[in-house]
Amino acid sequence: MAARKTAGKTAGKKGQSEYFFDYSLLFIVLFLLGFGLVMIYSASSYSAFEEYKDTAYYLKKQLTAVILGLGLMMVVANIPYHFWERFAVLGYLVSAGLITLVKTPLGVASHGATRWIRIPGIPMNLQPAEVAKLCMILFLAVLVCKMGKSVRTMKGFILMVVIPLPIVAEVYLLTSNLSSAIIILAIAVLMVFVASPDYKKFVIMALAGAALVALVVYLVVSGNDFLKFRGGRIRAWLEPESDPTDTGFQTLQGLYAIGSGGIWGKGLGQSMQKLSFLPEAQNDMIFSVICEELGLFGAVAIILMFIMLLWRMMIIANNAPDLFGAMLVVGVMGHIAVQAILNIAVVTATIPNTGISLPFISYGGSSVMFLLIEIGLVLSVARRIQLKEL
């Protein structure tokens, strides 16, 4: 249910126009943020005290990012979304440049990977991959509008898929962030899927992708070590019990948490796996803690909230004033959907383990800030939808 905001015409007058503001979308986002803060505190309080002597260490950092993100969201929501159209190419180039900075002295290493950069004067690190996701959505939305009907041709299809590849390669090769590289490529594929009515190309692409994945899994299982540590993750995914203290440790601990939660869970704050057993409990594996403390009921409730969020965005995209607005919303919708699905799939061992956060809920300042900026774009598009009262 969405509220309506009057556009300045006399109430009751025939042909009156009203502007649409989706308070339902805003409420869902605020709920997910609030729930995320509660779960971050629950999942991280023990490890935060052990490491920093402050049970609220991670909560305070995330709260700072959420407040900053909400401020940016409201600013973006009140700026006409066509304003950003002129910065599409600049955004693409800036995001490419920021990714290269991880290999400079500004790069910040954590957990064996350098994926962040230190911005002088700012008390938090920036993850360039999150900037790249936002800039890619903006760039591809502009590109679809510029190409028009030619996006439906094979040449247009190939162009839309190839253009993100330099950024995808940078994210993967320079930051070793496979999950973000997959998300950026998935955003491009989903946006061209919506823009092009010819689904045959996507069926062929899906079959080719499935065949490639099957081949990689076969080679890894056969003992080929061409993927190095990622091959170990695939083997741990297929048989985590074979190495329960190393490659299969996080997967097994996450499954123990999910299984021990049952239907209703142990109760908020009562997780045992977060007590130094489950790595990254407040980040990539927070869904495991949700399942352990709130059970299947809590897990399903969160999944339903994400479905409602995507549904509201789908309504906005379908009623957007123009193609550019619709493609912006589609890009944001694809980003959140793919990231949530991949996170839950990793936690439940449906796919091999790879570091990816749960949108709005997992700990991560850059992630939540740029997700809220994307929500601001969606709200900006929604505010330009006119409702006619005949």
Identify the notable features of this structure and list them briefly.
390 residues, mainly alpha, 3-stranded antiparallel β-sheet, 13 helices, 6 strands, 63% helix, disordered N terminus
Strand content: 5-15%
Radius of gyration: 22 Å
Structure classification: mainly alpha
Mean pLDDT: 85
Give the tally of β-strands. Answer: 6
- The number of distinct helices, counting runs of at least 4 residues, comes to 13
- What is the H/E string? EEHHHEEEHHHHHHHHHHE
Strand order of the largest sheet: 1-2-6
Shape: globular
User: In percent, how helical is the residue content?
Assistant: 55-70%
Please explain how this structure is put together.
- With 390 residues, the chain is mostly helical.
- 63% of the residues lie in helices and 7% in strands.
- The protein has helices at 23-52, 57-77, 88-100, 128-147, 154-162, 165-175, 178-195, 200-221, 229-238, 249-261, 286-318, 323-347, 365-383, and strands at 3-6, 16-21, 107-110, 113-118, 125-126, 386-389.
- The chain has a three-stranded antiparallel β-sheet with strand order 1-2-6. It has a three-stranded antiparallel β-sheet with strand order 3-4-5.
- Helix 4 (128-147) runs parallel beside helix 7 (178-195).
- Residues 1-16 have low confidence and may be disordered.
